[in-house]
Amino acid sequence: MPKIYILDVTNRDGVQTSRLGLAKLEKTIINHMLRDFGVFQSEFGFPFTQHEIHYLKANLELAKTDYLKPLRLGGWITATAKDVELAYKLVPELEHINLSVSTSQIMTIGKFTKNGVQTIYRTPEEMINKSYAKANILSMMTEAVDAAKEKGAKSIGVNAEDASRTDDEYLIRFAKAARNHGADRIRYCDTLGADDPKTIYERINLLAREVGLPIELHCHNDLGMAEATSLMGALGAIDAGVDAYINTTVNSMGERTGNCDLVSVVLAAKYSSIMKNKYPDILDPNIKLNQADRIAKYASHAFRVPTPINQVGVGANAFAHESGIHADGALKNRENYELYHFEELGRGEPELVETGRLITTGEYSGISGFMHVTGQYDITFRDDNEARRILELVRYANVHTQKPVTKEELMFIYQYPDIAAKIMTVTPPSE
Questions:
Q1: How far is residue 61's CA from residue 353's CA, in Å, rounded to a whole number?
Q2: Where does the pLDDT of residue 110 fall: very low under 50, low under 70, confident under 90, or very high at 90 and above?
Q3: What stretch of H or E contains 415?
Q4: 5 membership: H or E segment, kind and range
Q5: Structure-model confidence comparison of residues 123 and 47, the more confident one
Q6: Nearest partner of 204 among 194, 190, 193, 191, judged by Cα
Q7: Phi first, then psi: what are they for 189, rounded to 5°?
Q8: Dist. CA 299–CA 330, nearest whole Å
Q9: Contact, 391 vs 16, CB < 8 A?
Q10: Among residues 31, 54, 66, 116, which is most buried (max CB within 10 A)?
C-alpha cells in the first residue's frame, strides 16, 4: 500500500514569509527538530544563493551524523540548466533537489517578461498563439532535469508552480516529460491556495494515474483549506497507487497566509474520519507526534511569531475547557471532548518559568554567567580553553540570531563547534 510522507519546506518556503525569516543557526535547529519529528525530507534552502552556501554545506555535513541522519536534505532550484550548474558549482555535495517552473497560462504569459516584452516568445506570431511558451517551458524543465542527472542528483522532484490553475492536458504533458527525463516525483503546487478538497482529489488522481509517479502536494492557505486540500490530494495519489508527499511548514509559516501546517495535517492524517476508517496505516510510521509541541515552540521563538491561542494541537487552548458541560465531560472521560490526547503531542510536563534572577547568554556574556547557564544544562568542559571557545561561538550566535541563545542552540554549538562556526559564517561576494 502506498504511503503519505512529509516533506517539510519551512527552511525554504517558510522563510519567505514577508518581514520574517530565520538565521542559519535557527534553520539548522529546525532541521534537527524535523529529524526528531520523523519527517522524510527537509527542503533546506537555495543552493544557487550565495549567502546560503556555508549553511547548506555544513548541514550536508551534519546529514552524515546522528544529528540529522536519516533526514534527507533537498535544495530548491529554478528549472534552468544554468541554475542547476551554478547550484552544483556552489554546493557539489547536493544529493536531493526540486526543480521549479511555472506551468499555468497566466504565469507562463505574465512572468516571463523583460521591460514589458515577453522573453519566452521569439516572434509576434508566437505571442498571439502562445503555443511556443508551453513548448519552451517543457524544454527549460527537461534540460534542467538532464543537467541535474549529469551532476549526480540522487532524487529529483519537478515542481509545477501554479498547477492548480494549469489545464489538465498540459499538466499531464509536463509531468510525463519530467518522468521521461528521469524525475522521481511531481510537485503539484496550489500556489495561490485556489483548490478545494474535491477538485484536488480528482485532479491528483488523474495526474497520478496518467503519469505513474509519486505526487507532492504543495498547498497554500489563502482560502483556509491548506491542510484539507493537502490531505485529499494525497489520497488522490494513494488511490491511484502511488506514494504522496505532503509539503508542510512549522506553524503554517509561508507566503501571504501561509502553507500547510505540519502538526495540523499530521493530526488530520491520524484522526480525521476518512483516515481512521479507510486509511488507518497510511501515514509514514516514522512520524513522532510527541515532538509537535517542542518544534512549534521553537519555531514561534525563532520567527518571533506568537502561537495563536487556538492553534491546532499546540495552542494554549487546544486542551482547555471552561463551560460546565465541557469541563464535566472532559474530566469524566477526556474522549468526550478531546479528539486526541495532549501527551501525544509532547504536552503535559510542567515547565519551569524563572521569576527571580535570570542569566541569559548573549554577545556580551562573560565566563561567569556562561558557566552558570551551562551548568544548568549539565554541560562540562575539558578545560578553560574549551569553555572560552564555546562562549565565543555563543556570542557570535547571539549576534547571528539577535536573540538570547536557546538550550537547543547552545547544545548544538557545544556538540558541533566547528560546524556551528561554518553555519554562522556569511561571506559577501568580493565583487
A1: 36
A2: low
A3: helix 407-415
A4: strand 4-8
A5: 47
A6: 190
A7: -100, 115
A8: 30
A9: no
A10: 31
The domain spans of the chain are 4-298, 367-423
**Confidence band for 131, pLDDT divided at 50, 70 and 90:** low
Side chain identity at residue 185, one-letter code? R
The residue with cell 498571439 is 128
Reported as a single tens digit per residue, the pLDDT across 261-288 is: 999 999 999 999 999 999 999 999 999 9
221 half-sphere exposure, CB direction, 13 A CA radius: 23
> What is 35-101 written as a DSSP string?
HHHT-SEEEEE-TTSGGGHHHHHHHHHHTTSTTTTT-EEEEEEES-HHHHHHHHHH-TT--EEEEEE
Cell, residue 397: 550566535
**Looking at residue 332, what is its pLDDT?**
76
Selection from 181, 245, 243, 235 nearest residue 213 by Cα: 243
Q: Which residues of 272-310 are buried (b: 16+ CB within 10 A; e: fewer)?
A: beebeeebeebbbeebebebbbbbbbbbbbbbeeebeee
357 class by beta-carbon count within 10 Å (0-12 exposed, 13-18 middle, 19+ buried): exposed
Note the CATH number of domain 4-298: 3.20.20.70
- Using pLDDT thresholds of 50, 70 and 90, give the confidence band for residue 46: very high
Residue 51, C-alpha cell as written in the block = 549567502
Q: Which residues contact 70 (CB under 8 A, 6 or more apart)?
A: 35
Q: Decide if 188 contacts 207 (C-beta within 8 A).
A: yes
- Least Cα distance to 46 among 58, 34, 35, 55 occurs for 55
Q: Hey, what's the cell of 399?
A: 549576534
Q: How far apart are CA 72 and CA 14, in angstroms?
A: 18
Burial, 375: exposed, middle or buried (Cβ in 10 Å; 0-12, 13-18, 19+)?
exposed
Listed residue (188, 182, 189, 176) closest to 148, CA to CA: 182
CA 222 to chain centre: 18
- Strand 215-219 vs strand 117-118: parallel, antiparallel, or unpaired? unpaired
What local confidence, expressed as pLDDT, does residue 123 receive? 44
Cα-trace Rg, the chain: 23
